[in-house]
Write a structure and sequence with these properties.
With 428 residues, the chain is an alpha+beta fold. The chain is built from 13 helices and 22 strands. The protein has 4 domains: 89 residues, Rossmann fold (3-Layer(aba) Sandwich), CATH 3.40.50.20; 56 residues, Dna Ligase, domain 1; 124 residues, D-amino Acid Aminotransferase, Chain A, domain 1 (2-Layer Sandwich); 97 residues, Glycinamide Ribonucleotide Synthetase, Chain A, domain 4, CATH 3.90.600. 30% of the residues lie in helices and 25% in strands. Strands 3-2-1-4-5 form a 5-stranded parallel sheet, sandwiched between helices. The protein is globular. Bound molecules: adenosine monophosphate and glycine. The site of adenosine monophosphate has 13 residues, from strand 7, strand 8 and strand 17.
Length: 428
Amino acid sequence: MSILVVGGGGREHALCWALHRDTPDAGLFAAPGNPGTATLGTNLPIAATDVDALVAAVIQHDIEVTIIGPEAPLAAGLADKLHDAGRAVFGPSQAAARLESSKAYAKEVMRRAGVPTGASETFTDLAAALAYIEAHAEPLVVKASGLAAGKGVVVCAARAEAADVARAMLAGSALGEAGREIVVEEFLEGEELSVLALTDGERIVILPPAQDHKRLSEGDTGPNTGGMGAYCPVTLTTDELLARVRRDVLEPVLREMAAQGAPYEGVLYAGLMLAPDGTPKVLEFNCRFGDPEAQAILPILPKGATKHLIDIARGRWRTKRQVIAPTRAAVTTVLAARGYPEKPEKGAAIRLPSDLGPNVVVFHAGTARDADGTIRAAGGRVLSVTGLGSGVAAAARVSRAACDKIAFEGKTWRRDIAWRELQRAGAP
Ligand code: AMP
Ligand code: GLY
């Protein structure tokens, strides 16, 4: 069997790592991949958004199953084109990926399906948006409806700020086309949880939930980023909570998508806000694995778990499971380049010790390899460093110790990934 992973970030390296562990004999390809995926398989020099070239490569290399990592190729219809070419693919259709690529659509699906989410309204007209903002309590959250690579959500303390953000987005000056439609939402308080579920549109297997750290700096301060670290498991996750998320969020959304003629398959990521009383409300859906959540979750799934992805892709999934339990704990720390997320500096040479111990997995993201073998920073999030342990406190120590041993000019990271969990556990 040969498998293609589309994408070139830390998430895709983690997918390749898990696939390689489970099926070492499979031919593994990544497009475009990164220096990490190159150690596990063959990188194809094709951009993740070049849909036609990807389809051609799948046929040329006779690749049986394609696993699509990032949102952009899903939103561009890569899964549909591969299906049309008779190939198995893990990832939703373009129509189903609208759950992520249009926040306005996601809100509409949630409204129809009765899924708990913040009160909101969708606007393309500035005057109407301003009237809504005037009439609602601060703080307010203004969201570009389209894909904006993590930059599309602004939490506004004051109405005047919300008005300014709405104006800039709707005018197209903030985020281009992605902001021509906006969602204005009530501010929700609580703790965030990323619940990822595998699905073929009917069956649902919930993976161990993780918690992301979106802010750049320690103590959850500084600008929003794609994610500076994640850990798993999260003790907020009770069996009761997962049953509730299944019943109140995942099942109704899948039913509604099927009813709309856009059945959903792949991984459905619900970004939840848990109110202080534990009630989950949906902040967003993603149509893919989270990054860096994948780098924490995948290494602690039981060996063989990637078979679920392959079986879903092949339309042969017959599982009776409801959840997959984690085998250990994982803490993933992102090492970013100086200047991330605004203007990451590129080019720094990375000193990456070859042996960081048996409980460390380093996933490449924004790295490049020179002809002489030097690894250099080549993007905002450079490496994800996953520490494994029997509990989150041990995993956090392992991750941070490994991060201390990896050196590059401008290395920017948070030493406090999993702080909420450590606080809950009363750990030092
Ligand atoms: P989203 O892409 O919609 O998940 O938003 C990105 C981040 O903005 C989330 O992870 C939250 O930290 C924050 N956020 C989004 N919506 C809200 C909301 N209604 N209330 C509070 N924070 C929010
Ligand atoms: N870490 C959040 C995301 O992948 O969207």
